[in-house]
Every structure is written in structure tokens, then in C-alpha cells.
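User: Predict the structure for this protein chain, please.
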Amino acid sequence: MAFEIGDKVIYPNHGLGVIERIETKTIMGTTCGFYQLRMANETTVFVPVDNVDGVGLRRAITDIEVDRLFGLLGDGKIDSHQNWKGRFKDNSDRMRTGSIYDVVEVLKSLTFLSKSKSLSFREKRMLDRAKFLVVSEITEVLAEKTPEVEVKVEAALERCFATKARNEARVKAAGTTRT
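Assistant: Here is the predicted structure, written as C-alpha cells:
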């Protein structure tokens, strides 16, 4: 995937950045092209042009994809492991993919879990990171203020949990009427 100067991109686990320059550098005798990104927190990151797919660098989502994202946030489907080790590995793998849709799944599952028990320090940090990544990308795409987007994300998550509870109640009610 080729980018141009000024493109808004998402660097997995770091968030939104803007391509400021495209340049060629020689490092230890090897010459290659780099995208210079200015991240939202004002840090500069260099990504080798040849490794864009490997690190998961991608364009920010579109307005239409924001609607799909909110649909996913509120769909009532929550993937959760009971086993901490398996859950943490799956969530870590999802966070590394760079896909905002994978990050949303992490956000949903950890937020849901946090409502019933305390998260470990590492899971709490991952939850905070997932929320930051989702909110910051939507904020940028919709050109809205962060607090407004946070309210919308929280409302979508509450819809998700309510839908999940309704679905579980239906399954339970169907099971008791059959016996």
C-alpha cells in the first residue's frame, strides 16, 4: 500500500499519525525508503516503505466505516475466555493486527469483563489502550471532540451489553420451557 505526504494513517498500538515526509536513508550500508510519521502525541516514527504490511500501517477508516464500527460496538457479541492466559494472548494478537475491528473486539470483551471483576494491571492497560485507539480514530474521522466520541462509544458498549443480556435471557427462557 502506497501513501503520500499528508495521508492520515494508523500505526498499530500507537494510533493516528500523519505522513510528513517520504525519504531514503542508508542504515548500516542498506538503503531504503521510509515514511516519516508525526504521531498525535508529537513523536516522530520512521516506517520502512518495504515493511508497511509487516507493521500493519493502514489508512484511517472512512465515515461509512465509522457506522459499521458503531454497529460492531453495539452488536451484543462478546468473545471472552475464562482463562486469563488464553484471553490475554488472543487480545494481544488482536491489538497487534492493526485492524480497528480487532481493537473493537478487545474493547468490548475487556469492558464487559471489567463489569464483573477487576482486571489485571496488564489487561487494564490493554483496555485503556483499546479505548484510546478506537476513540482517537473516530474523533479524527468525524472531526468531533474526544468527550463527545467517548459518550457515543460508551452508549454503543451499553447497547452491546444489554443485547447480550437479552439474548442470554431468551436462551435461558427457551431452555426452561422445553423441560
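The chain has a mean pLDDT of 89.
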